[in-house]
Amino acid sequence: MGKTTTLLLFLFFTLHLKTSLSKDLCHKDDKNTLLKIKKSLNNPYNIISWDPKDDCCTWVSVECGDATVNHRVTSLDISGDKVSAQIPPEVGDLPYLQTLIFRKLSNLTGPIQPTIAKLKYLRFLRLSWTNLTGAIPDFLGQLKDLEYIDLSYNDLSGSIPSSLALLPKLGYLELSRNKLTGPIPESFGSFPGEVPDLFLSHNQLSGSIPKSLGKLDFYRIDLSRNKLKGDASMLFGTNKKTWIIDISRNMFQFDISKVKVAKTVNLLDLNHNGITGSIPVQWTQLSLQSFNVSYNRLCGPIPKGGDFHRFDAYAYLHNKCLCGAPLQRCK
After folding, report:
1. pLDDT band at residue 331, thresholds of 50, 70 and 90?
2. How confident is the model over 194-229, as pLDDT tens digits?
3. Does residue 330 lie in a domain region?
4. Per the omega criterion (within 30 degrees of 0), is the bond before 183 cis?
5. CB burial string 45-54: b at 16+ within 10 A, e below
6. Of 140, 257, 280, 296, which is most buried by a Cβ count within 10 Å?
7. Domain count of the fold of the chain
8. Span of the secretion signal (predicted)?
9. For the stretch 294-323, what's the b/e string if a residue is b when 16 or more beta carbons lie within 10 angstroms of its beta carbon?
């Protein structure tokens, strides 16, 4: 092979390599969709750097998958920006999206975008700290890969869809700080996979807790600041591995005298209910970082021992006839 031929081959492969390296990994359809999303959001500051000349897999707030998904866009995170718009319908045109986040966008309004129903690979959905309104859509229960849902700090209203309990991989459900009404769905007692962390606080939920929830072993459950009533004792049990349980500021009425709590419980908040009975001695076995039973109808002596001595009178005030340190002595 002559020197001229060798040189030509070298130049050819060098040019081919350079072309391959400069080629966009980003799929052209995804790039076009992202540019439409940027326009729909009125070119917010955090993504103003998105340039059609650049590989969209290098854009801020965007992540692409590997070669197994042809480098399609798998994550979109628009957070902490001055956006005055609704969730663009084009988000549904990113077919390989696994993570979708719109967070801390105080002027993001309108409903949860219906085209999200098209995102069959979606695993992580966070639409929080915005001003979204309307109902939580039933179609979320059809997105079978969903593992994490956070719709907190919005103005969502209506009832909680029972279809959310159909999600086989759901491990985290956060619906706090909305205007949700109605009962906790009966279906929430039969999640098909692992029992998710459940956060429903600061809503207007009413009715009784489904008894079926007593069969579940919640690691973290927060039902505080609602209008729930009746018995909540089924949420407790020494055979469970619960870490956090907060049912404060509701209208629960049950006797806690024989309620046993898992030794794993670290936060136990029952304040502002109509709970009766006396504090069980078994609770002295708990390692509590936070504890509050104030504003109930409890009676009898506060058990001695355990972590109870660590909490001041604030944790026990305004009960019917609770006594003993740190309250007044029992007669």
Report:
1. confident
2. 999 999 999 999 999 999 999 999 999 999 999 999
3. no
4. no
5. ebbeebeeee
6. 296
7. 1
8. 1-22
9. bbbbbebbbeeebebeebeeebbeebeebb
